[in-house]
Design goal:
It is a single chain. With 293 residues, the chain is an alpha/beta fold. The chain contains 12 helices and 11 strands. 45% of the residues lie in helices and 19% in strands. Strands 2-1-5-6-7-10-11 form a 7-stranded mixed β-sheet, sandwiched between helices. The protein has a 4-stranded mixed β-sheet with strand order 4-3-9-8. α11 crosses α12. It is globular. The chain binds NADP nicotinamide-adenine-dinucleotide phosphate. The site of NADP nicotinamide-adenine-dinucleotide phosphate has 23 residues, from α1, α3 and β8. NADP nicotinamide-adenine-dinucleotide phosphate binds next to α1, α3 and β8.
Length: 293
């Protein structure tokens, strides 16, 4: 297949490399002005991929968007006229809230959302390390996206495991809830995930989870309060030495995904007239840090 990866950072480079190895014709769309970019995954041979080639973008069977959430709408809006209406759009990022904008911009295109637990790290612009094996889920946003389940086999062949989820929103909310609990607190206090198991964070963490659970229930998402608390603590223990992506973004003064994580929950809570003071405070605290730069 002809596949364009928009935003070939850590996760995008990882997929670009595996999809190339699986025999697909992969090109990328990045911020670099070079006609070709080089990607070396772990200790494999480096590959050279065409970069910012309008013809290849126009001929893409699939566009895999691995930009961070705040850039998805902005970047796609500059490319709309070069995207064929049959091209399958696959958004893979943390957080929620970009799909409606993309659907408005490109209403005819099959639209899929993906969530992955693979770990990738880019020590330099030409190198990507596959730091953790994980699982990936795909699901459809629109009717034409429902016809694209075959993509699971294509991507699973390149980097397993990939599965289809008939209700991707449910899967994304589950991940969002965990991100809401861990990301802003670790960013605000500049701590690794494991520190959230300490008693001084307990009340704040519990209240964030309770509020998110209420919003999920109002949204019709299947969730049980005690199970959600247990899942968050499982992730805190399993990733105790890790720094969350939001902690790293804030530490490096990069725009975080707060608007698409806690911000998404706060906006949904307002629609349902649910009070979410703990999430609102965290949202405002992170926004304030970003605005102070
Ligand atoms: N890394 C992981 O292990 C992992 C795991 C699961 C989920 N995720 C999620 O996956 C998403 C991507 O994360 P990541 O770690 O891959 O981030 P990343 O390394 O920062 O990748 C994002 C890429 O988008 C590029 N970009 C930004 N603006 C652009 C523009 N205008 N045009 C073209 N490209 C542009 C960035 O370019 P520059 O290189 O020039 O900045 C960067 O290469 C996030 O939502 C993250 O939460 C990541």
């Amino acid at each position: 297949m002809n596949i364009t990866v928009i935003g070939p950072g850590a996760i995008g480079s990882l997929w670009a490399s595996y999809l190339t190895e699986a025999g697909h014709s992969v090109n990328v769309w990045s911020r670099s002005f070079d006609e070709q970019i080089r990607i070396q995954r772990d200790d494999h041979d480096a590959i050279e991929l065409a970069n910012n080639n309008i013809n290849q973008l126009n001929n893409a069977d699939v566009i895999l968007v691995t930009l961070k959430a705040p850039y998805v709408t902005q970047v796609l809006s500059t490319l709309v006229e070069h995207i064929n209406s049959d091209t399958i759009l696959l958004l893979m990022h943390n957080g929620m809230g970009t799909a409606s904008d993309v659907q408005q911009m490109l209403p005819a295109n099959p639209l899929l959302l993906a969530t992955t637990t693979h770990g990738a790290y880019r020590p330099s612009s030409k190198q990507v390390l596959h730091t953790g094996q994980g699982k990936t889920l795909f699901g459809a946003v629109n009717e034409s996206g429902q016809q694209c389940q075959f993509l699971v086999d294509v991507f699973n062949h390149a980097l397993p495991t990939v599965d289809w989820h008939s209700n991707i929103e449910q899967a994304l909310w589950n991940k969002l809830a965990i991100n809401c609990a861990i990301n802003p607190l670790t960013a605000l206090y500049a701590i690794p995930n494991g520190h959230l198991g300490q008693s001084q964070y307990r009340a704040q963490l519990d209240s964030v989870i309770d509020e998110v659970c209420q919003v999920m229930q109002a949204e019709g998402i299947e969730v049980e309060n005690s199970e959600l608390h247990a899942s968050v603590h499982d992730v805190i223990r399993a990733t105790s030495d890790n720094y969350s992506s939001m902690q790293q973004d804030i530490a490096h003064q990069r725009l975080s995904e707060i608007d698409f994580i806690t911000g998404y929950v706060v906006a949904k809570a307002a629609q349902h007239r649910i009070d979410v003071p703990s999430n609102t405070k965290l949202y405002q605290a992170i926004k304030q840090i970003e605005q102070s730069w």
